[in-house]
Design a protein that fits this description.
- The complex is a heterodimer of chains A (about 300) and B (about 260).
- With about 300 residues, chain A is an alpha/beta fold.
- In chain A, about 40% of the residues lie in helices and about 20% in strands.
- Chain A contains 13 helices and twelve strands.
- In chain A, α3 runs parallel beside α5.
- Chain A is globular, with a radius of gyration of 18 Å.
- The relative contact order of chain A is 0.12.
- Chain B has one domain: 3-Layer(aba) Sandwich (Rossmann fold), CATH 3.40.50.970.
- Chain B contains nine helices and five strands.
- In chain B, strands 1-2-3-5-4 form a five-stranded parallel beta sheet, with helices on both faces.
- In chain B, α2 packs parallel to α3.
- The longest helix of chain B has 22 residues.
- Chain B is globular, with a radius of gyration of 18 Å.
- The two termini of chain B are about 20 Å apart.
- The relative contact order of chain B is 0.17.
- The chains are: A alpha/beta (about 300), B alpha/beta (about 260).
- Chains A and B meet through α3 and α5 of A and α5 and α6 of B.
């Protein structure tokens, strides 16, 4: 099942029961969304390409008792309207869930404007926002459920396509991470599609981070403190992503554990290509990743 | 309240604003005085009805609202006196203050947020309206225009935007430039009702809200006002956006504002 359909099916189920759930689209369609639109027209708005207004209207609805999901391309629905998120949603701590589709390079040939590689850093600056980065159907569904129940600002960073089930349990999803196989000397911490990539060649000592904010204390005690070496891997800028999160946590907790960060090269991109090719520009393609991880492990 | 009583109330609010400024040494007096009559009309002239939402987007005029809240018993004297003190009332509105519907300070949000509130009211089949007052320079924010398009398209008849058209921004005059030239045509073409009033004439302000009652579109009220209204030397003077009066000026202002009380 496409990860988007999994998410939208769950929102459909939530919206069926909760008539105060309103869905606003930034003129973006998705297969799984059509059912919602058809069956709950009173709960659906297409606002047009107007991200600032998207967030302000969502805030006005949320300040009137509605629980609002907004949906747009992740680079625009975070950066273009950052001020609206900061001020209208976060300063009021309102239940607005922002769904940004197009994590990392998933918009490949649509180019750098569409690439979602700054969104995690931007959203992390806002402490009110819970950040989810689901990468299989189960985690996508849970992100909608948790965000809806929490009644506070949330950001769901959404990928596209079908992904193998990472076999998360509900309690692991609530903690926001999953240990894949027993931890050895080297722990690879990754998020989003990079977890799926790494799982293709490494079956133990991998941790997927599903909730990037807030970080569970369990993650510190069960992952960071149990590791001798750490490698972080993400399809995101070095600044602000999970490499930043882990290095900050190591510093804050006085943990002297060597850390190697792998992420998207720190520069603005001007290239068009397939996702795999774009990865190769930053050494995040599978062969290079495999080499780098075995060298540092 | 009749118009004479409203005028008297407005003078009292202006005097309170002056005293708060003198005490705290913090001022946005010019734009507060241009908006004072409109605020008095909203709160004492029964224009704001129970259940209505109101966002004073030009939140730097908050001292007038503090005085009104004090007078109406919505705010205690203790809280009122905390203006300008660390941790007390500040130069913008926050929702922890009872009666404040939305935080203020960042401009260009209120039309969109009020649109969301108006829409929620319509979804819930309520009669309540969403009203916001913005400064005339605020329409330079592009997000206002995204919201104007949206509200016109959804025919949010329960949305009212009042523009405090005092023709002065922080640094310069905003005459009939590219925004305000042909403004009536412009705003009507977006599917809005347009009303132009004297923002210091209570009869005019009441009349504008009669239009709101009957229209099937959102309403934009352009209220022509005078920055610094009520104190002769402050009127229409760009310097009084946030200047502080000297002791001599304070004495003159007190006298002019007290006139109706004696």
């Amino acid at each position: 099942m496409d990860i988007r359909d999994a998410l939208f099916d769950e929102i459909y189920r939530l919206g069926e029961k909760d008539k105060d759930l309103i869905f606003i689209s930034d003129d973006l369609d998705a297969w799984g969304l059509r059912k919602f639109k058809r069956d709950f027209p009173r709960q659906f708005i297409n606002i047009g390409v107007a991200e600032q207004n998207l967030i302000d209207v969502a805030a006005g609805l949320a300040a009137s008792g509605k629980k609002v999901f907004v949906y747009g391309i992740c680079s625009y629905v975070t950066a273009r309207c950052l001020e609206q998120i900061r001020f209208s949603v976060c300063s009021m701590n309102l239940p607005v869930v922002i769904i940004g589709v197009g994590a990392g390079f998933s918009f490949s040939f649509d180019g750098p404007s569409h690439h979602g590689i700054h969104d995690i850093g931007l959203m992390r600056m806002l402490p009110e926002v819970t950040i989810f980065n689901p990468i299989d159907a189960r985690s996508a569904q849970m992100s909608a459920r948790l965000a809806h129940a929490r009644k506070q600002p949330a950001y769901i960073r959404l990928d596209k396509g079908e992904f193998p089930d990472l076999r998360y349990t509900d309690s692991e999803l609530r903690e926001g991470f999953k240990k894949m196989g027993p931890l050895g000397d080297t722990t690879v911490i990754s998020t989003g599609i990079m977890s799926q990539q790494i799982m293709k060649f490494r079956t133990k000592g991998v941790v997927d981070l599903f909730r990037l904010q807030p970080i569970s204390p369990q993650f510190i005690s069960q992952v960071l403190k149990k590791s001798k070496r750490i490698i972080t891997v993400e399809e995101n800028m070095f600044t602000g992503g999970i490499g930043s999160i882990v290095s900050e946590l190591l510093t804050d907790h006085g943990l002297k554990i060597p850390l190697k960060r792998l992420a998207v090269k720190n520069r603005q991109f001007d290239r068009f290509g397939t996702r795999e090719w774009l990865w190769s520009l930053s050494g995040l393609d599978m062969p290079t990743l495999q080499k780098k991880i075995s060298r540092h492990a | 309240m009749n118009n004479l009583q409203l005028q008297k109330k407005a003078r009292w609010v202006r005097l309170e604003v002056l005293e708060a400024i003198v005490k705290s040494g913090k001022s946005h007096i010019g734009g507060t005085y241009s908006a004072t009559d409109l605020l008095v009309a909203l709160y004492y002239g029964k224009l704001l009805r129970p259940g209505d939402r109101f966002i004073l987007s030009k939140g730097h005029a908050c001292t007038a609202l503090y005085a009104i809240f004090l007078d109406l018993g919505k705010m205690s004297r203790k809280v009122y006196d905390s203006y300008g003190i660390n941790g007390g009332l500040g130069g913008q509105l926050e929702t922890y203050i009872p009666g404040v519907d939305f935080n203020t300070g960042s401009m260009g949000h209120a039309i969109g947020v009020a649109s969301g509130m108006a829409l929620a009211s319509r979804m819930d089949r309520k009669k309540s309206r969403a009203i916001t007052m913005i400064g005339d320079a605020e329409l330079f924010e592009g997000s206002c225009w995204e919201a104007i398009i949206f509200a016109g398209q959804l025919e949010l008849a329960n949305l009212v935007v009042i523009v405090d058209r005092n023709r002065l921004s922080v640094t310069e005059a905003i005459e009939d430039d590219s925004i305000y030239r042909n403004f009536k045509k412009k705003i009507e073409s977006f599917g809005w009702s347009y009303v132009n009033i004297n923002g210091h004439d209570f009869r005019d302000i009441q009349k504008a809200f009669q239009t709101v009652k009957h229209t099937k579109q959102p309403t934009m009220i352009i209220a022509d006002t005078v920055k610094g209204k009520g104190v002769s030397f402050m009127e229409n003077n760009v310097q009084w956006h946030n200047a502080l009066p000297s002791p001599e000026q304070i004495a003159i202002a007190r006298k002019e504002l007290s006139y109706g009380h004696t």
